[in-house]
Design brief:
Distance between the termini: 7 Å
Number of domains: 1
Shape: globular
Mean pLDDT: 83
Number of helices: 6
Low-confidence stretches: 111-118
Largest sheet: none
Length: 183
C-alpha cells in the first residue's frame, strides 16, 4: 500500500486488534463461531501485515506469491465451508480479494506496496470496492441496537458476543475498502 505512513499504521493497528479479538472468539463453545472466527483472524492479521507502510518495510519478492498461496487456500476452504453456511461466501470474497491484492503487488514495478500507477480503477478492483462498500453499509445497519432477545441467564463469554463479532466484521470491511482504494 502507498500513501502517508500514519493512516497505514492506523490500518495495521485496526486489523491486528481485530485479528486478536477473533482469536479470542475461537474459544467459543459454538463450533460454527469458532470456525468463522479462525478465518476472520487470518484475514485480520493478513491485512495488518499487508498494510505495513512501504516506507517502513518493503517485503522480499517471495512474500506476495506466498500471500497469494495462503489466501488461495483460505478461499478454497471458504468455498468448501459455504456448503453449510452462507456467511462463508463472504470469507470467499475476502480471501479472493487478498489473493488479488497480493498478485497485483507482486506484479507492480519493484514489488512495493502499490499496485496500479495512474491506470485508473481496474474492473476487479471496482467490483471488490462495490462489494465491500455494500458490506460495510449492511454491517453498520446490523449494529443498530434492537430489542434484546431473552437470554438463558448465563453470561456470554467474549467469543459469544454477536455485537462484538459484527463490529469486528465491520472494521475489517472498512479496512478492506481502504486497502482497495490505495491500489
Amino acid at each position: 500500500m502507498h500513501g502517508s505512513a500514519s493512516p497505514g499504521w492506523l490500518l495495521v493497528a485496526l486489523c491486528a486488534v481485530t485479528g486478536g479479538y477473533c482469536l479470542l472468539r475461537m474459544r467459543s463453545t459454538v463450533e460454527e463461531q469458532r470456525r468463522a472466527a479462525g478465518g476472520e483472524a487470518l484475514m485480520g492479521f493478513g491485512m495488518a501485515a499487508m498494510a505495513v507502510p512501504a516506507a517502513v518495510f518493503t517485503p522480499p519478492a517471495w512474500v506476495w506469491p506466498a500471500y497469494a498461496a495462503l489466501f488461495g487456500a483460505a478461499a478454497l476452504r471458504a468455498l468448501w465451508s459455504a456448503r453449510s453456511s452462507a456467511h462463508h461466501l463472504h470469507h470467499l470474497v475476502g480471501a479472493s480479494a487478498m489473493v488479488y491484492m497480493a498478485v497485483a503487488m507482486a506484479a507492480s514495478p519493484g514489488s512495493h506496496h502499490h499496485a496500479h500507477g495512474g491506470s485508473g480503477i481496474p474492473l476487479v478492483t471496482g467490483a471488490l470496492l462495490l462489494y465491500f462498500a455494500g458490506y460495510v453499509l449492511l454491517s453498520g445497519v446490523r449494529l443498530v441496537p434492537v430489542a434484546a432477545a431473552p437470554r438463558s441467564g448465563r453470561a456470554l463469554g467474549w467469543g459469544d458476543r454477536p455485537e462484538l463479532a459484527r463490529a469486528c466484521r465491520l472494521s475489517m470491511g472498512i479496512a478492506m475498502v481502504a486497502m482497495l482504494l490505495t491500489m
